[in-house]
Amino acid sequence: MKIRTIITAVVAFFSLGMQAQGEQGQLSLIPRVGFSLTKFTNLSNDYFDIGESSKVSQRLKPAVEAGLDLEYMVTDFLGVTAGAKYSLQGTKFKDFHVNVNPESSSDMMRFVNFSRVSSDLHYLQVPLMLHLYVFKGLSLDAGVQFGHLLTAKESFNYVIGDLDTKTNKVTKYYRYTNDGIVALEDGDDRYLKYRETATDSYKRADVSIPLGLSYESDDVILSVRYNMGLNNISKEVEKMRNNVITLSIGYRIPLLGN
Asked: Less crowded by CB within 10 Å, the N or C end of the chain?
């Protein structure tokens, strides 16, 4: 009968799900790689020390992470993991410009155009997680994550120039050096790049609360997590925190137990 066929199919599907997670007493190693979207929270123009002369907006920064988890199944429906991973975080910004002397009575206005502005924060992260299996293979995940900043890089492209407001033409271009602003010669590239190590501008510690979902089938684990930063990560701006959404894939390798 058709009813028997349907019941058989449902039972087979449920049985497959029952094999899709660890069992009580099992210890597993789970390598993971992931793609993430990151940004800072509570960011203001103080980050660039430009006051209110220009509006600065963030964009989500694509990033990656990779690491290992060690999971122990306390019961058939509760697992705990401790992990270690490399995680790239930070943010990107929309292009913006700053008028250096907007209130000047002169016909000449100096401007700076910024593009491809990016902050790259490289972390070693240690997530400690609880996994509550609400259905075979499907878990609700929550925990706490401790991070240590390895290094930070900041980069951007820029153009500095003097604009004649009467003719709307740029009369001179400049570049930035450690000794100040230097005029460019005719033929010099006016579109310049700036790169620097900025580790000293950030605090080393990063604490966050990861919340998410995971689904496992045939030892392959797909996870979605939102990491809510708890502490200020900047030495120069107040209340600036990391904000990360991650999609990762892992593979369960049983070490002990069933």
From this structure: N
